[in-house]
Amino acid sequence: MRIILNHLTHLNQGFICVAGLDLETHRHVRPRLRQNNLTSAYLTRNGGYFELGAMLDLDWVEKAPTPPEVEDVRFNPRRVRVLKKAAPVYFWNLLKSVARPHLSEIFGPALRPLDYSAVVSEGQGIASLGCLYLDRLPELTLNRQGRPRLALNDPPFNLNLSVTDLRFYEGGTTNPNPTAFDHANALIRQGGPVILSLGLSRAWRKNENDPAYHWLQVNNIHLEKKGFTF
What is the mean pLDDT of residues 32-51? Predict the structure, then answer.
């Protein structure tokens, strides 16, 4: 299976999550190890092969769908072959071809508003990954802990979402990267379309007595202007 990477997110310190588009079907694929989470050692900058825009041959994969994570596949990291890195124009045009203008077109009727976010009940839903095309400016802000948030409105959703884009965090740590934030914000304010790589988290409970939900988050922000796509 050959993919192009368009989701690269920060998990806990030292761990990442990745996903891409199957170059044949243009459907999302999330490569996962059989037991453990991926570490930052697999990033290109650390001698690995994962970076935004990377085109990779995963070789043989084993599909492992569990709703809403229907995109999950198991792969052998030793068999991955780097093909090349996509040109920014090709990458943007591919994202644009798969992006949808509304959240409901990506995640279906299982997605519903909750606490200025959106959730899917545990084990429900038709997808956990997608791309949202915005021709209006989203608002990128920082919360009290200095972590990035993104506000957008797509009725009935009025959202303020966590941004887990790896570029907003200093290498391998949980420390926010203010330079990346300022750069992305400046480009957004210049206008032009934005494409968001969105994902649903693994199910978790916000409070002990609450049901478990998959929470919507912004995995990556892609801009047509070249300075922040890669």
Answer: 94
Which candidate, 220, 230, 38, 53, places its Cα nearest to that of 129? 220
Domain ranges for the chain: 2-89, 101-228
Which tokens belong to 25?
């079907």
- Contact partners, residue 208, CB within 8 Å, separation at least 6: none
Q: How far apart are CA 228 and CA 167, in angstroms?
A: 9
Which residues, 6 or more positions from 123, have their beta carbon under 8 angstroms from its beta carbon?
66, 67, 68, 203
Whole-model pTM: value is: 0.95
How far apart CA 112 and CA 29 sit, in angstroms, is 23
Phi/psi at 62 (5° precision): -115, 120
Neighbours of 34 (CB within 10 A): 9
Backbone phi and psi for residue 109, each to the nearest 5 degrees, phi listed first:
-70, -10
Q: 44-48, 157-161, 173-177: which has the minimum mean pLDDT?
A: 173-177
Architecture in CATH of 2-89: Beta Barrel (2.40)
pLDDT band at 229 (very low <50, low <70, confident <90, very high): low
- pLDDT tens, 93-110? 999 999 999 999 999 999
**Assigned token pair, 171:** 């290498």
Amino acid (one-letter) located at 174: T
Domains 2-89 and 101-228 in one fold: yes
Beta bridge partners of 157: 154
Under CATH, to which class is 101-228 assigned? mainly beta
- Give first-to-last CA distance, the chain, whole Å: 23
d(CA 136, CA 138): 6
